[in-house]
Amino acid sequence: MGRALCTDFYELNMAASYLRRGMTAPATFSLFVRRLPPRRGFLVAAGIEDCVEWLEGFGFDEGDLGYLAGLGFEERDLEALAGLRFTGELWAIPEGRVVFAGEPLLELTAPLPEAQLAETFLLNQVTFQTALASKAARCRLAAGEAMELVEFGFRRTHGVDAAMAAARGAAIAGFAGTSNVEAARRFGLRASGTMAHSYVESFPSELDAFRAFASDLPERAIFLVDTYDTATGVRRAVRVIGELGLGRRAGIRIDSGDLVAVSREARALLDQAGLTEVRIFVSGGLDEGDLAALVTAGAPVDAAGVGTRLGVSADAPYLDSVYKLVAYDGRPVMKLSTGKETAPGAKQVFRRPGLDDCIGLRQEEVPPGAEALLSPVMTGGRRLAAPPTAAQAVRSARDRFVRDVAELPSAAGRLEDPEAPAPARSAALEDLTAEVRARHQQAGGD
Fold first, then answer.
1. Are residues 225 and 120 in the same domain?
2. Which of 45, 146, 339, 364 gives 20 to 30 Å between its CA and that of 213?
3. What pLDDT sits at residue 3?
4. What is the per-residue pLDDT across 366-380, written as a single tens digit (0 to 9) for each?
């Protein structure tokens, strides 16, 4: 326990007030993204596993309560908070699924104080991890089938937890490995890395560095060839590969310059030496635009490391995500604020082939030929199924991503000026929305 202080202060204020007034009837909150960033035609759901783990351990320990006493919470508030655990249910779209604006990524139903206190953490995890997985998905689409991608962002992400999320999101989106060794261990990924320029500079010559590295690590002999002069570096790599008989086990990495031109020159030098199976790996501030340019130019690149811009989702570092009350004590509710109106009631997303989505009410029958995207994950404050290992969760999410992205409309997957599909709304949801709006408007005039 002791996780409940991972929240905003106003959530605690509201929870204390609810508890004083006995407002503990079931409340349903819906977490969704209002609008996609301009350069996004789709999102990839992520972060649900961390939400479930946090909810299972939700509670206040003695240290938490002592701190809240110092903030001015009264003894009766502390006593009420001390007994709080998450006892509700959670429905969610599984990680790895492609989603669009307005669709609930998760819906939580629990006694109102519990549901309110979950807001901050759930938004934090789902927003950030979905942003990262969506950025990684764009990179994967841009690189095409032939180019392998490795996540390289650890040193530039905003903290260690962010680095873990970046590696996980990239793996969900189909990256082949990560430079983050702890992430590789935790999520069952391939740890990937070469050498740094400092390694080359530490030796009397580039040739000495290459010989030492290949002698010590012959199964990982990927030579960073651009410390001094790239073409010369490739020639020296060719020499060492021949001396040690490394053959196809070896590779070269290029981290600077015009990657199209330099990779072509490097490929020619390798092929002239009969090293046609030696792979070319590129890196250096790449994102989906750079990857697409390499593919369009026909650059002979076998693999690429994508780091900084992925790890912070540089072009879209946040999502317009919200967590809104849609029902309380059996009463559907909605917000009417200009530009921020919400829809009432617990919901479901019905998907037909081609990612043709319709947002409806949870109690509606699934239309013929469609599937329901949200499924129950927790009830009574506990998981409905045994928790997967971290690696299993990533593999399952990746499988879902592969299936969904195969059906993604081409306009939604465009790197520039994408057109995001706009989910329809069911007649039942439209009718309920009109009914609740009229009720609120009538009440406002009393």
1. no
2. 146
3. 83
4. 999 999 999 999 999
